[in-house]
Amino acid sequence: MTLTxxxxxxGSAAWADGxxxxxxxxxxxxxxxxxxxxxxxxxxxxxxxxxxxxYLTTDAGGEELCLRPDLTIPVARDxxxxxxxxxxxxxxxxxxxxxxxxxxxxxxxxxxxxxxGRPDRAAADAEMLALALEATRAVGLSEVEIRTGDxxxxxxxxxxxxxxxxxxxxxxxxxxxxxxxxxxxxxxxLSTGPGHNEYEGVLAALAGSDRKAALALVTxxxxxxxxxxxxxxxxxxxxxxxxxxxxxxxxRPAARCARPDQxxxxxxxxx
Length: 271
Known about the structure:
Elements: E1 2-5, H1 14-25, E2 29-30, E3 36-38, H2 40-46, E4 56-58, E5 64-67, H3 72-80, E6 89-98, E7 107-116, H4 121-138, H5 151-160, H6 165-173, H7 178-188, H8 200-206, H9 211-225, H10 235-245, H11 260-265
Parallel strand pairs: 2-6
Antiparallel strand pairs: 1-7, 3-5, 4-5, 6-7
C-alpha cells in the first residue's frame, strides 16, 4: 500500500509524524532504504518502458544505478537481505522518490506499508487497506480511488483462458506493465474483420521461435493431420511461409485459432 504527495518539509509536517505513528502502532517498523538503488530490479519488474522515467547513472564497475522511483522494491530488497527474510514482518516508510512524470514534479514523497511472510494474506490485505484509508484521512484527502492487484487472481484468470503457452507467459510477464498488457490483450483478441488470419493459432505457437523450432512444430502438425507432404510443399517451405507471417518486429501474432489439419490445408497450393 502506497500514498504519494508533493514534497513538504518533513521536519515540521505534523501529518507525516502522525502517519508514521499510526503505522508504527499497527506493528509496521520504519524502513529507510538507500536513495541510490540498482536499476535492474525496477527494469525487470516494469520493463524497459520505465527507463525513460528513471534517473540513471553507472558506477565504476559498470553497474547501472538509479534514484529510487518508488519504495516498494527497495524495502523488499532490504527485507530479503536481512536475517528476518522468510519470517512475518511489516514495514512502513515515508520518503522522497524520483521519477520523471511529464509536467509534474519529478521528486515527490511516497508513504506506505509492506507486509511479508504472513500466512493470513486476506487479513493482511484488509489491514493494509484499513491503514491506507486512515492515512488518507490523516493527510486531509476526502475523495479516494482504491486499486488492488493480485498476481494469484490474475494467474488463475489467464489459466482459465486456456491460451497457448507463449501467450500465457507473455501476459503473466505483462502484469506490472500496464501499457504492454493493454497492447497484448488487444492483439490476442480474436478479430472478426476481413483482415483476420485463420491460422493465428499456429502463428501464436511460433511467436519468438527460430527456424529450427518452426520446422519441429510444422512436422508435428503434419503428423497430427496425417500427412507428410502438402501439394508438393516440403516441411521447410511450409515452416518458412508461417514464419513470414509472424510479426517481424514483435514475432507475437494476435490470437489462437485453427486445428492442425486446417492449418496444413491452408498451405496447399491451389491450381
